[in-house]
Amino acid sequence: MRLQSIHHVAIICSDYPVSKAFYTEILGLKIIAENYRAQRQSYKLDLALPGGEQIELFSFPSPPPRPSRPEARGLRHLSFAVDDVESAKRWLEARGVEVEPIRVDEYTHKRFTFFADPDGLPLELYEVGAKDGVAD
């Protein structure tokens, strides 16, 4: 077996319209397909990232909350690669998203920051672009 890449990440949200707007309008992900599954009272929204990866956004009646942030067992956070973390941080903040201060990875020397989706899921912006990882 040879894994090629991550195909998708599945996220369960508590308020489907709010999360759909966050991922499509604020983060700018494109809708591939949107389906309502009546038997499960659940939406499934497939969203495309520029590299071909996908996010599946689900809604279910009364999903339990995440136990803690970000150190709960399981998936710790979802990280998005960006060319310029400072510019992306300003973009999110201009749209009312609270973003942590930019930090520098002690091993790669790349810049990164965290923010959260409407349900508090930790999301990261990780700079892979032209900047050398040194904070301005």
TrEMBL record:
One of its GO terms (molecular function) is transferase activity. Residues 5-128 form the VOC domain. This is Metallothiol transferase FosB. PANTHER family: FOSFOMYCIN RESISTANCE PROTEIN FOSX (PTHR36113:SF6), LYASE, PUTATIVE-RELATED-RELATED (PTHR36113). Keywords: Metal-binding, Transferase.
